[in-house]
Task: structure prediction
Amino acid sequence: MRATHRIQPSLPIGQIPHKHALQLRLIAQILDGLPQLQEQVLAYLVPAQVRRDVGRDGLSAQQVLRVLVLYLLLKVGFEQLEFHLTDSLTYRAFCLPGVGNSSPKRACLQHNISRIRPQTLQALHRILVEQAV
Result:
């Protein structure tokens, strides 16, 4: 099953007094205000001819978008990204895995991020740069 947003509650992004945590909070606010970008990601994750309401729960479009942002910020491989999502409460809160859920594995991260098209990536970069300026 795929959805735009995760239904299960997740951890709030911690109020750690560090510039990286503040940056993640601001990016989260920007991403939450862009439902059209999340819909675009969902369209890439689930083709039009596939039902979204059946099957095992997959990462939501919102989660994939946030994982992508984290992947671009950290500039690490998928194995390291898996480690950071497992190890860091701040990163887990940013990526919204849900309370009690395990972090996505390397293969899941790679599979989902690779489905995002360059047009969406370009739109994401443009929006984040505009907001930063």
